[in-house]
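hey so u asked for the seq, here:
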Amino acid sequence: MKNFGPNRASKIFGGATFFLFLAVLFFDFADQSLLSPLLNPLLSDFFGRMDDVVPMGWVSFVFTLFSALSMMAAGFFSDRYSRKKICLAGCLLYGTSSILTILTPHGGTGYCFFFITRALNGIGIGAVLPAVFSMVGDLVQPQRRSTAFGFISTSMLTGRMAGFIIAAAFLGTWRTAYLFIGMINICLAAGLLFFREPSRGSGEKELHDLITHGAEYNFRIGKKDLRLLWKNKSNFWLIANFIDMFPASIILFLVFKYMEDKHNMGGQTINILLIMIGVSGALGAIVFGRLGDWAFRRDKRAKALIALVCNALPIIFMLIFLKANFIIPEGSSLGGILAVPGVLPVIFFIAVAVFINQGVHPNWYSCLADINLPEHRGTIVSLASVMDMAGSALGPLIASYIASRWGIQAAMRSVLFFWILNIFLWLPVIYHIRGDLDRSVKIIKGRAVEMKREMP
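ran it, structure tokens below
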């Protein structure tokens, strides 16, 4: 017991808490990803036909809109009050709304009921991310944040893959898929009761030792701080760039229908291939997260530079994917599918694209955490995520109208345009981020002096 000091206890607590956060986000994103593979069963159940995806586009839009509104409120309150309680309330709400989906009737009434439960689900899910983001920022120091957010991104990505698998397993009884996820999320909410909230500011090296020895970081966001957020010019560009969500949201919304309609690939097979591709994405988030931390020690702009590269390179691989032209014979086994000319190259290039593109998120999250003060992080990630939510909402909605007017191939091609546009929105971040980092560190050092002075 003599070696069980504050630092060791802090590491054990931090590791267990971080693992719980990973689990919460894993099933959060599993819940969100159920809709895409269930498009055809939902359309058939509610409308008796599967040729018009616009109603489900509106479900996705409203879900994301309510998530965004909830996130804005939760972000501000996370910087003033208990982040653990906000996260707990969000988990309970979206878990309960998913469980209630089992009661959805058939036909048009069922569509309205499903519409409402998805809206409530969005409110609950919106409360979770800013609270978790703020607490992770206090668990991890800047030199390891991209790696930590790499694991966070991996949890989100693999959660999406798990959602696809769960949805595929319940294609015939899609209501059970939502019930299953909802019950798990309620259990995770109960788990939050047994963990204490990390001390605000403890992730900063200038404050860590002071807080460990009893000092308190009592700074909280106020109305005047909202102006301070925009003194970090990088904030504007990191927040305003919602275009980067269009490509992924369009692909996730249409990929099952696209592969079924264009290549005659069934949902079960798509899930198996997505698992393979998802593994490469998970590795990419961790690899590029660690690369961001390593390069950050040498160049303060490194995380933004890596995010830019990870946004640009997938364009090449998306072109190859869209040019692929093969048809899967009816009743083919997995081995037979892989033997079809063109299938393996497409899988390989998609896996490489996902591997690279997943490097954006850990470095983007880390940039936001690094340039903002501890009491601003919940608010700033909520604002950034709201813009991302706008992209995630508009992407499927725009794509559904493009698909209805010009076909699903045209909707998938629109991804290329948005990816190219996104490249230019990262350039101002690279220009401003070094000065913004220095400004935040200077403020934190001043607060460390003030906190030390107030210690008994």
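The CA atoms of residues 242 and 387 lie 5 Å apart. Confidence is low (pLDDT under 50) at residues 1-10.
lmk if thats what u needed
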